[in-house]
């Protein structure tokens, strides 16, 4: 694969809600998801974020699970628990949580892209491709998404489609560079 999952993971967190179309929205100034710490028990969510930052994924998952029990509709808590499962390579649990993120926030591309990475981790390329297609539908002008889909095509042995997506990503990057000058 031409990209690394670490790069792809970082790129996923830069994905912005559908409908944002300016170059500034897609760059370093792109808004991040707002993190809502549950009012009933701020310590559970805080422990989750602190543990995740420290690299203690088991403690993060435990804390996020506690916080989610109090705030089951909180997208960010579920997203970061899913990220913790993903980072542990527990792809089945990550997929379950990312699927719930998608149910709660169906237009937030990050849920689809991260679930696609988890499917890639399981070598379920067809499902990864479906999620990457959805991210492109939601954010058609965001170059890294084409690299992600190209990586899925490449893993499936479809080099022609992979090369087309890699070329589209480069075209979009050049276009974005021109607009930012």
**Domain count:** 2
The largest sheet is: none
Give me the CATH fold name of the largest domain. Serine Threonine Protein Phosphatase 5, Tetratricopeptide repeat
**Superfamily at the CATH H level of the largest domain?**
Tetratricopeptide repeat domain
| Low-pLDDT sequence parts | 1-33, 37-41
* Range of helix content: over 70%
Assembly category: single chain
Structural class: mainly alpha
Shape: elongated
The first-level CATH class of the largest domain is given as Mainly Alpha
Distance between the termini: 31 Å
Radius of gyration from CA coordinates: 17 Å
Number of helical segments with 4 or more residues? 10
Strand content: under 5%
Order of helices and strands: HHHHHHHHHH
How many beta-strand elements?
A: 0
What's the rounded overall pLDDT mean? 82
CATH architecture of the largest domain: Alpha Horseshoe
């Amino acid at each position: 694969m031409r990209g690394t999952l670490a790069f792809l993971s970082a790129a996923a967190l830069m994905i912005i809600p559908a409908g944002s179309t300016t170059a500034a929205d897609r760059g370093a100034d792109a808004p991040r998801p707002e993190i809502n710490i549950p009012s009933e028990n701020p310590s559970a969510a805080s422990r989750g974020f602190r543990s995740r930052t420290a690299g203690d994924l088991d403690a993060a998952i435990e804390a996020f699970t506690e916080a989610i029990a109090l705030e089951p509709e909180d997208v960010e808590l579920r997203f970061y628990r899913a990220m913790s499962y993903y980072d542990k390579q527990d792809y089945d649990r990550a997929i379950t949580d990312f699927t719930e993120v998608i149910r709660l926030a169906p237009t937030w591309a990050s849920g689809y892209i991260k679930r696609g990475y988890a499917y890639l981790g399981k070598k379920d390329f067809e499902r990864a491709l479906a999620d990457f297609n959805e991210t492109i539908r939601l954010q058609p002008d965001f170059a890294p998404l084409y690299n992600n889909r190209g990586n899925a095509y490449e893993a499936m042995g479809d080099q022609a489609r992979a090369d087309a997506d890699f070329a589209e990503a480069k075209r979009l990057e050049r276009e974005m560079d021109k607009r930012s000058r």
